[in-house]
Amino acid sequence: MFSGNISDLVYQIRCAQPIFMEVLPELKPMVGFKQNNPYHAYDVWRHTLEALSVANGDLIVRLVVLFHDIGKPHCYTEDEKGVGHFYGHGSVSARITDEVLGRLQFDRTLRDRIVELVRYHDVDLHENRKSVRTWLKRMGEDQFRRLLEVRRCDVTGQNPRYIAERVEKVERIRAILDEVLIRDRGFTIKDF
Predict the structure, then answer these.
(1) Is 52 a member of any domain?
(2) Does 33 map to a domain?
(3) Which domain holds residue 182?
(4) Three-state DSSP class for 146?
(5) Shortest CA distance to 97 belongs to which of 55, 63, 49?
(6) Model confidence over 104-160: pLDDT tens digits?
(7) E strands present in 11-132
(8) Is 88 in contact with 31 (CB distance < 8 Å)?
């Protein structure tokens, strides 16, 4: 189900939502859960589907996007102005995701990769070489590239007013990553 055309996948999930929720009941609290935050135009479930609709073909990325905010309903608080916040939702989402994937008998290596990205999907990534190197050391190139793709999907599913600037930030970090890898591998522009 999670391979093939992403538009077809999102359409299938929407059409079969009641059945989908029976298989993955942990997703039910996301449906209709308002975020009450200017950066989020949609409820948690619609945001997830909007984000999923732009995911690349990587199975890990698609599953991370599906589960990345599963913990939000369990972490919701409002500040004195009525703005919604979800402090710690990355860790809560990672715990729930690990439980779901365990129940579904996912391979341990795949499960660990997915859970790691769910945990860190909302981390504040800085636009500098030091930060990029830190993340490369922590998770490796492939996993860090997935994290950037998850971030791109996540921000694309938020408030349309802020999408362009947030996607541009992800792309700038991706460019820094490419630069760091070229420098660290000893390549120069002349090699291309």
Answers:
(1) yes
(2) yes
(3) 6-191
(4) helix
(5) 63
(6) 999 999 999 999 999 999 999 999 999 999 999 999 999 999 999 999 999 999 999
(7) 77-78, 84-85
(8) no
> What's the number of domains the chain is made of?
1
Nearest residue to 151 via CA among 69, 53, 65, 50: 65
Q: Name the token pair of 109.
A: 């290596």
Contact 153, 51 (CB under 8 A): yes
Task: Give the gyration radius of the chain's Cα atoms.
Answer: 17
Give the pLDDT score at 186.
64
Q: Give the pLDDT of residue 78.
A: 97
CA distance 61 to 55: 7
Find where tokens 């365990």 sit: 102
The ranges of the chain with pLDDT < 50 are 191-192
Is residue 18, in this structure, part of any structural domain at all? yes
Strand ranges in 113-190 using DSSP code E only, listed in sequence order: none
| Mean pLDDT estimate for the chain | 94
Short-list 122, 47, 120, 118, CA closest to 86: 122
CA 85 to chain centroid: 17
Please enumerate in sequence order all residues whose Cβ is within 8 A of that of 148, keeping only pairs 6 or more positions apart, or say none.
Answer: 125, 170, 173, 174, 177
What pLDDT, on a 0 to 100 scale, did the predictor assign at position 191? 47
Asked whether residue 1 is assigned to any structural domain, the reply reads: no
CB burial string 126-145: b at 16+ within 10 A, e below: eeeeeebeebbeebeeebbb
Q: For residues 168 and 39, what is the distance between their CA atoms, to the nearest angstrom?
A: 16
CB 28 within 8 Å of CB 44? no
